[in-house]
Amino acid sequence: MDRLTAMRSFVEVANCASFTQAAEHLDMSRLQVSRHVQEIEAWLKQRLLHRTTRKVSLTAAGEIALQRCEKILHETAELEVTALNQTDDLSGTIRIAAPIGLTQNMLLDVVEQFTERHPNIMVELFASDRFTQLVDERIDIALRYTDQPDENLIARKLMEIDSVVCASAAYIDKHGEPKTIEELRQHNCFRHLSVTKWDFVKDNQHYSVEVSGTIKANDVEVLTRAAQHGKGIVRLPCDLANPLIADGKLQKVLGGFVSPSSILWAVYLSRSYQLPVVRQFIDFAAEAWSSDIKSEDV
């Protein structure tokens, strides 16, 4: 019995709570996965999974075995990563989910650099501003802005990105510049579909204001273009805003008020350690994004 392969099958079934989904993720037949789990149970002389026609769940022994198998697979993957760092011979497919704006503005550059270094790697990108389901959608890595990553996932902090409120010179000339956050209520504010309030900090005091406007979108690029057309005010992450402000396409407003930074995390399932490419890509992205992106005084 190939015990590592059997462990991978068991861990995948435990994480998916499904033999069928585990087989799809591992590119095996359902029968193969089932036999691997049976082999692990025979080896350990314990029943690890409760099986019904509708549900798969862990036994008490299975809970313990899952933790230990994941640790072994983790250490095995670490060894593979170390070896690959020596040879730089990396191959396979990696599925990455990330917000639309991040994918367009920053992630694509990192992916291109990574695949140039490792030409045998194929990256499948899923750009969406919703939180993708890693198991159901077979995602290896999800990049997420969040203050608190899901405790059921492994998370690595990549960077912090400031946000700024800005508008075009044409909009400010026509409608004036807001001097306080309350004045934002009188302006046409473009916002993301998932946001109803803009938060700010000044002199260690926290402020929040409900904003509204004629355009809402699930893509920050759409809001950015609308603001550049002189139609309203927008709050943008500084990776996108700083170059536009430096080029004079937008102007920062409410400079005395700071929007709380967004924290970007790479999150992944423990089973993803089976793929050395996952760890390699996260290390690569962390190095590329080693500096936080702050608001620039321009």
From TrEMBL:
Q: Does the keyword Phosphoprotein apply?
A: no
Which superkingdom does the taxonomy of this entry point to?
Bacteria
Q: Which InterPro entries is this protein grouped with?
A: LysR-type_TF_proteobact-type (IPR058163), LysR_HTH_N (IPR000847), LysR_subst-bd (IPR005119), WH-like_DNA-bd_sf (IPR036388), WH_DNA-bd_sf (IPR036390)
Keyword annotations from UniProtKB, A to Z: DNA-binding, Transcription, Transcription regulation
Q: Tell me, what is one Gene Ontology molecular-function annotation carried by this entry?
A: DNA-binding transcription factor activity
**What Pfam families does the entry give?**
HTH_1, LysR_substrate
| Name of this protein | LysR family transcriptional regulator
Q: Which PROSITE patterns match?
A: HTH_LYSR
HTH lysR-type domain: residues covered: 1-59
Organism from which the protein derives: Vibrio cyclitrophicus ZF270
Q: Which family does the entry's similarity section mention?
A: Belongs to the LysR transcriptional regulatory family.
Stored SUPFAM superfamilies: Periplasmic binding protein-like II, Winged helix' DNA-binding domain
Q: Which GO terms describe its biological process?
A: DNA-templated transcription
